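User: If only I could read backbone structure tokens as easily as an amino acid sequence. Underneath my words sits a plain record pairing an amino acid chain with its backbone structure tokens. This is the protein in question:
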Amino acid sequence: MVRGGRPDGPPRPPHADVRRLRLAHDAAGEPRPRPLVERLRRGTAAEGVHLRPQPTLPIVESPVRCVALRWSPGGPPGLQARRAADLSEAAMSLQRKAVGSMELGDHLCLFFDNDDERRSIMAAYARDGVRAGQKVLYVSDAVPARDVLDWLIGDEKDAPGPMPADADAKPVDLAEAMDAGHFVVRTAEETFLASGRFDPQESIELMATEIDLALVQGYTGVRVAGEARFSLRRWPGTEQHGDFERMLDEVFMTTDLKAMAICQFDRRWFDAARLEQLESCHMGRVRVDDYYDDGSLRITPIFSPPGVAMTGVIDASTRPAAERVLESIATRTGLLCLDLGGVTDCDADGLRLLTRADRPDRGPNRGLLLRDVPPAIGERLRSAGLVARSGVSIEERPR
């Protein structure tokens, strides 16, 4: 099998990829690409990020020797000097950012208690990165690479068909991307504990190394996705995980990194107080992409229970899009939930579409729940005789 552009076998000597490219630049009389931290040095001194040479880090892929980010204890005021409560309030006030809208420089968190929602977000994140020519590094808690790949690919069978906004998007095969080295999966132990313990500074240096290597290899940037449950395993040094998140966030906020990151936190493992502290170490939260949004109607996936949330107006102009989304998810079995809490108006044809009263093929095992129905729309449903339809449950919002 070929991975990373070469057959499986003994790894190349350290820095082979980077040395080969630099020799080619020298032979052509061209300037060598500047390492990431050389570029960062110019703009970070005033912000309190101090740099110093570091030795090569023991990582799985071919490493590149670089000058890595170095933090000085008790450095100049920055995020670490602010009160945690202030940071948390700032983070809580930020609107969640759709994963498809993420940009280089973003450092976001994902708090989840539903694995389907998490998989939908992470699969889109990985595919978008490969499509954009970015290297994608996924750090799993302890799951092997191929199992992570199978889990992410499983999102394809549950996803609806292409929506108008992404119908022309180039399809991405994550299995091919993994074999080519564009999509890399490592465990937390491989990534963070190569020296025997977790060290926040070494972990940030590792990230700088990864970014340098990817840029030299021709990628436009790096996408990092990390599962944080390893921090609860009481491995040596993992009690410093919160310090790592704070330090990493300040790097993102004070430098122009060609990278983005999503840190994943399972609500079933992290308590509320810990999550509040961790949220303060991020720029905001990431959310699932919308199925559709034209400014008049937004349709967003929901997962507990599965279905969609609608916000805006359902009329002649938006009904075709709503119908397309509902048709795309109509093949799923079990309960389907339509959350109408954000719907401000809905015409008669829209009401029939929502209740699917004109669909005789809903099947005996198909249940439909209209949730958080505004009182005005509930009254229209009753007037149209749609509230007593078999298989349809309606939960109205209290007046």
About this structure: The longest strand covers residues 334-346. Residues 1-26, 30-93 have pLDDT under 50 and may be disordered.
